[in-house]
Amino acid sequence: MREKKATIRDVAREADVSVATISRYLNKKGYVSHVTEKRIQSVMEELDYKPNEIARGLARQKTNTIALFIPDISNPFFPQLVQAIEKEAGRKGYKMILVPASSNEMTGVSMWESFENMYIDGFIFAPYQLKGKSIKLLKEKKIPFVIVDRAADVTSTNSVAVDHYKGAKLAVCHLFEVGCRKIIHIGGPKQLIPSKERLRGYTDSLKQFSPEHPVIHYEGDFSLESGKKLTGEAITEHPDADGFFLGNDLMAIGCLKILKSLRKKIPDEIAIAGFDGIDLTKLVEPEITTIEQPVYEIGVAAADKLIQLIEGKAEENDFLMKLELKLQARASTLGFKGKTRGKERDNDEADA
């Protein structure tokens, strides 16, 4: 027969104090003398008493639990982010729950109230473009939150972000440097800030390197399938294109797949660059050049900042934390020959 577990009443009786005193000691609320603390601790060890963490959390309306909202766990960008947040939260004594939810589900007041009733201590929003109404509601309810990735903006509230504009310029400038002269951009949904910033970086790079270059932009949805579909349309409408800058790596893989099916030589005829730095870009042939986001560092920074807000160790004022991006130049762009460069070589030989 299993031995009965000690209760808070057992501890109170053996320590010769009230249950309320034990509760004050456990929840660190109210005065308990040092002598009494030592006696309570001794009795707890003697009885092998383990406090009910959930009950303690409810008593102080805090459960050391954070919620991470994410839309698509199948996207390889997100698992590493989840792992980083969960590990950092665990290191600081917090649990993380994963909430798959579309942006449409996040507009109702009832959803926030249901999580508030569960005593979730704070939220991290990984992919969402939070509306002003939602941000206002969270602030009114004094719920700590941090937003990252697609939700974050250079002027956004409580953000951990990267400079998507700068990253796009790195990618497009690299395509010009290897010799591309007609570069197509397949971006993400136009309502998302990263999509807008990456398009702006692409457009400004064209103005800088080739003012006569037309802006050729297709709007995708960050999926592999949209990368395939839109690359097919683009190459049909612009058969002389020699470079593709994709708004994320999944679309870049889709682009690579469709171009190879059309027997295009990569990188000889067409160069491809993506954005994110997911591991899959190293598992295809050729490996894809990409703008690498510090995904793990983003997750750690988001969890750390949220816990500081929860514990009152950081100001409630808006903040922005920006992390650096890195160009990973690989075989999908290195070794590009292209028609333009070929013609230049022919002209040089003729002049000689």
TrEMBL record:
<dbReference type="Pfam" id="PF00356">
    <property type="entry name" value="LacI"/>
</dbReference>
<dbReference type="InterPro" id="IPR000843">
    <property type="entry name" value="HTH_LacI"/>
</dbReference>
<keyword id="KW-0238">DNA-binding</keyword>
<dbReference type="InterPro" id="IPR010982">
    <property type="entry name" value="Lambda_DNA-bd_dom_sf"/>
</dbReference>
<protein>
    <submittedName>
        <fullName>Substrate-binding domain-containing protein</fullName>
    </submittedName>
</protein>
<dbReference type="InterPro" id="IPR001761">
    <property type="entry name" value="Peripla_BP/Lac1_sug-bd_dom"/>
</dbReference>
<dbReference type="InterPro" id="IPR028082">
    <property type="entry name" value="Peripla_BP_I"/>
</dbReference>
<dbReference type="GO" id="GO:0003700">
    <property type="term" value="F:DNA-binding transcription factor activity"/>
</dbReference>
<dbReference type="GO" id="GO:0000976">
    <property type="term" value="F:transcription cis-regulatory region binding"/>
</dbReference>
<keyword id="KW-0804">Transcription</keyword>
<keyword id="KW-0805">Transcription regulation</keyword>
<dbReference type="Pfam" id="PF00532">
    <property type="entry name" value="Peripla_BP_1"/>
</dbReference>
<feature type="domain" description="HTH lacI-type">
    <location>
        <begin position="6"/>
        <end position="60"/>
    </location>
</feature>
